[in-house]
Amino acid sequence: MIRRLLVLLAxxxxxxxxxxxxxxxxxxxxxxxxxxxxxxxVFLGExxxxxxxxPEVPNSMWARIRVEASWKGDPAPIVRVxxxxxxxxxxxxxxxxxxxxVFAIMGAGxxxxxxxxxxxxxxxxxxxxxxxxxxxxxxxxxxxxAPQLGLAVTVxxxxxxxxxxxxxxxxxxxxxxxxxxxxxLDVFGRRVVTLADGPVEPGPNQMLWDGRDxxxxxxxxxxxxxxxxxxxxxxxxxxxxxGS
Length: 244
Prior knowledge:
Blueprint: H1 2-13, H2 32-38, E1 41-52, E2 60-72, E3 78-84, E4 99-106, E5 118-119, E6 127-128, H3 135-139, E7 152-156, E8 160-161, E9 164-170, E10 178-185, E11 191-200, E12 203-209, E13 222-230, E14 233-243
Parallel strand pairs: 3-5, 8-14
Antiparallel strand pairs: 1-2, 1-4, 2-3, 4-5, 4-6, 7-9, 9-12, 10-11, 10-13, 13-14
């Protein structure tokens, strides 16, 4: 019991937004059962958004996740999970649109972090999910079906020099007047600009992005991601901007 408590405290300290002395993350050699036992929630979900937790929690990120299946705890349909920023502090590099098997603990206000919030790191076993994930057998669960997105977004041209044409389709199943949001994110998952946010009709749609952020400033060349959310589903498409 004492050993498990000490390990749990060490894992929690990695989520406090403090850079470790080592240049790489080091995790205690614990079994699947040990990690499952120390966690308050274990679930599979798709990342909808990743945003900075600063200034509330420096050097950390919030991941908003849509829960698809749960094996421990009773997470809401959409939850947020805190993780440290950067692999050196054992943070999980959450990517929007990716599915993850999440092992999380619930904080009690230690280290200045919010009480009652779920937190995770790679030492707790959180990882991106794939169809043959062996942890599903350890959880005693069949592979869940891949979600049927029913949405699509494309970028033309890609790479883009100058304006990029964004083309997306809203399925009939979304219904008339479904709420949709179209964002451009930077490589860290931070919102650059919101291009559309409101009701939409089913069918094909398109819009030009002029390469400017929410303040009207031209963004730098680099990798961006177009993110479309509608009817509880999210899809995204990479966009390489090579100039104005």
